């Protein structure tokens, strides 16, 4: 089991290109940060018709990652119960490669070590269907702090999409994610979180439009789905 720790910062959906470029330029110049190129991510989220996973605060995703010069890869991801405060999201996460454009739930069940989530997948897995998508271009940097703490910085620009009766409904998605990759001494003193918040403060100074966001991409999709369906 992996524990994902990331700080999420949202930006207005109508962010002007000049402001997006200002953020990119700031990150390109940030001491300790190394640009890691772009990825195009197609993310399909699954749940039962009754939204059993959402009610259990779990998220099930199939992701296609493509980048120039490399073959794309399909990954399946399960995220379980977690918490979000001041934009810092902490939750259980399991991610595995899959052979193609289909979930392989048996492998996720074998990997998951949260019994409640295992039981949910066993009982409801056969009923899951695609509910919505998040599709975006991700620009990446790897940041190394002075104490060796490693953070992945991702700037995402794209959309959340829900298709109902042949009509595609969308809303813009523009956000920055700061994910803790590694911290000395297993982060027993919470230095990783302090590094994330310090990075966020630096980015807000460069781009005041940034704001802490406790809403995950999955939650954005469920919210749009509810708006479209009216329930």
Automatic annotation (TrEMBL):
Gene3D superfamilies, alphabetically? Hypothetical Protein Pfu-838710-001
**If you read the UniProt record, what top EC class would you report for this enzyme, in one word?**
hydrolase
Report the Pfam families cross-referenced here.
CYTH (PF01928)
InterPro entries the record matches: CYTH-like_dom_sf, CYTH_domain, YgiF
Which residues does the UniProt record annotate as the domain CYTH?
2-228
Q: Name one GO molecular function term.
A: metal ion binding
> Which species is listed as the source?
Pandoraea morbifera
Q: What is this protein called?
A: Inorganic triphosphatase
Which gene name does the record give?
Answer: ygiF
> What EC number(s) are associated with this protein in UniProt?
3.6.1.25
Q: Which residues form a coiled coil?
A: none
Entry keywords, A to Z: Hydrolase
Asked if Phosphoprotein is a keyword of the record, the answer is: no
């Amino acid at each position: 089991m992996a524990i994902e720790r990331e700080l999420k910062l949202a930006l207005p959906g109508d962010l002007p290109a000049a402001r997006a470029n200002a953020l990119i330029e700031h990150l390109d110049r940030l001491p300790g940060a190394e640009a890691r190129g772009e990825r195009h991510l197609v993310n399909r989220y699954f749940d039962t018709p009754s939204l059993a996973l959402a009610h259990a605060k779990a998220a099930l995703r199939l992701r296609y990652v493509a980048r120039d010069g490399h073959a794309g890869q399909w990954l399946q991801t399960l995220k379980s119960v977690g918490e979000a405060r001041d934009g810092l999201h902490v939750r259980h996460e399991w991610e595995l490669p899959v052979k193609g454009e289909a979930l392989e739930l048996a492998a996720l069940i074998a990997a998951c070590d949260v019994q409640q989530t295992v039981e949910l997948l066993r009982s409801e897995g056969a009923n899951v269907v695609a509910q919505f998508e998040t599709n975006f271009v991700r620009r990446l940097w790897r940041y190394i702090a002075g104490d060796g703490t490693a953070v992945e910085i991702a700037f995402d620009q794209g959309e959340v999409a829900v298709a109902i009766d042949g009509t595609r409904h969308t809303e813009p998605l523009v956000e920055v994610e700061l994910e803790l990759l590694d911290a000395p001494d297993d982060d027993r003193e919470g230095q990783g979180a302090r590094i994330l918040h310090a990075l966020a403060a630096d980015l807000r100074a460069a781009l005041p439009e940034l704001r802490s966001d406790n809403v995950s991409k999955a939650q954005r999709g469920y919210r749009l789905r509810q708006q479209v369906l009216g329930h």
